[in-house]
Specification:
The complex is a heterodimer of chains A (about 160) and B (about 200).
Chain A (H helix, E strand, L loop, with lengths): L7 H20 L1 H18 L9 H20 L19 H10 L4 H11 L5 H8 L3 H18 L3
Chain B lengths: L2 H10 L4 H9 L1 H5 L7 E6 L6 E5 L4 E5 L6 H11 L4 E3 L5 H11 L17 H10 L8 E2 H7 L6 H9 L12 E2 L12 H10 L4
Parallel strand pairs in B: 1-4, 5-6
Antiparallel strand pairs in B: 1-2, 2-3
Helix pairs in contact in B: 6-8, 7-8
The chains are: A mainly alpha (about 160), B alpha/beta (about 200).
Chain lengths: ~160, ~200
């Protein structure tokens, strides 16, 4: 029998940290755990349909992104990216770095998502386009526009 | 990279390793009740070394130990042959753990665990089902289990089936020996076969 996709547990071991970090960026520390469980549950449900050459990282971050949006919708409020949660022990020198994330939440939603996927999810532009449902170029433009707006308001 | 991009990366670089690990560890509990856990597994400690046990909703489907049982290979095999929904779930195995402990302490002479035979079919399954009927502390031969499974001249095929027993110990292939009195083979290593037969007072 041919070797297929890895057993789900290997997938979970490999991606748990990335997904968790990404969710913290999208919904904050307090709600990341719930979103993480919902994300992995949805991933487990769909997992047998994946092909061995699937981009697992892009795939699971897509699910995480959707779950984060669902979560915010049911909570009836907007994204609260990362550094909002001041009680988290962010690296001591991250003061200025944390600041910028509080400004990310004021971006238009596509730009916000593009920035989160790019800098918290570390995804390439074509994956971001895939998640946003737009072209790679459009994804690049969203990142670019987002950065431009941030640059206007960000003071180090 | 601009300073702004650096700041974004730095600001997103939370150390979440502990939270992620804890969340992943409780994932199996979150899965419960959704009907999605096709294969659960855990690794137990035993006198024969670490023992990987795996179960489906039907029952115990795989036991693996010994020098040739590489965890990654065993899990990939379960993933390919049963379902890739393979999740570590230690809490599912309290019954298995207890029965194995009692067996190794000499306080249990038969297992009352539901079994899933789906990893072996045909003649092999018939051989193993006959093997499962050999009582504690007794032994049989490859020839006899082959005959009992309907193939009097299938001793060699029976040996192969026993060698690929997916549920050793619980399906006691260690109780099957050569007709000439030799120990024969054992997937988990001959030392373990000898150990189990000693434990049962059959050697």
């Amino acid at each position: 029998m041919s070797v297929g996709i890895p057993p789900f547990q290997s997938f979970l071991d490999e991606h748990q940290e990335n997904v968790y970090r990404f969710l913290v960026s999208l919904v904050g520390f307090q709600e990341a755990e719930d979103c993480f469980q919902e994300t992995m549950l949805a991933a487990l449900r769909a997992y047998p349909r994946l092909r061995p050459d699937s981009n697992l990282r892009g795939w699971v971050l897509t699910i995480a992104h959707r779950k984060a949006l669902d979560h915010q919708r049911t909570r009836g409020r907007r994204a609260v990216p990362v550094a909002e949660v001041a009680d988290s022990k962010v690296e001591s020198d991250a003061g200025g770095a944390g600041e910028v994330w509080t400004q990310v939440r004021d971006l238009p939603s596509k730009q916000r998502t593009a920035i989160v996927l790019r800098f918290a999810g570390d995804l390439p532009h074509d994956d971001i386009g895939h998640i946003l449902g737009c072209s790679e170029d459009a994804a690049r433009r969203n990142v670019h526009e987002g950065l431009k707006k941030l640059r206007e308001v960000w003071t180090q | 990279m601009t300073q702004l991009e650096q700041a974004l990366r730095q600001g997103a670089n939370h150390d979440v390793s502990e939270q992620a690990k804890a969340a992943a560890a409780s994932f199996a509990d979150h899965v419960a009740g959704h009907g999605l856990l096709d294969v659960a597994y855990t690794v137990l400690d035993a006198p024969v070394g670490p023992v990987l046990v795996a179960a489906t909703r039907r029952g115990l489907v795989r036991i693996a130990f010994g020098p040739h049982a590489y965890k990654d290979e065993v899990l990939q095999d379960l993933s390919d042959r049963i379902s890739p929904r393979v999740v570590e779930a230690g809490t599912y195995f309290e019954g298995v753990r207890r029965e194995l402990d009692e067996y190794f302490e000499g306080r249990r002479t038969r297992f009352d665990l539901p079994l899933d035979w789906s990893l072996i079919g045909g003649f092999g399954r018939r051989v193993l089902k006959r093997t499962a009927e050999i009582p504690y502390g007794r032994v049989s031969t490859y020839r006899d289990v082959a005959a009992a499974a309907g193939s009097p001249r299938g001793a060699r095929a029976a040996g192969n089936a026993l060698g690929s027993n997916p549920i050793p110990i619980v399906v006691p292939c260690h109780r099957v020996l050569h007709s000439g009195g030799g120990l024969g083979g054992y997937g988990g290593g001959l030392d373990v076969k000898r150990f189990l037969l000693h434990l049962e007072g059959a050697l």
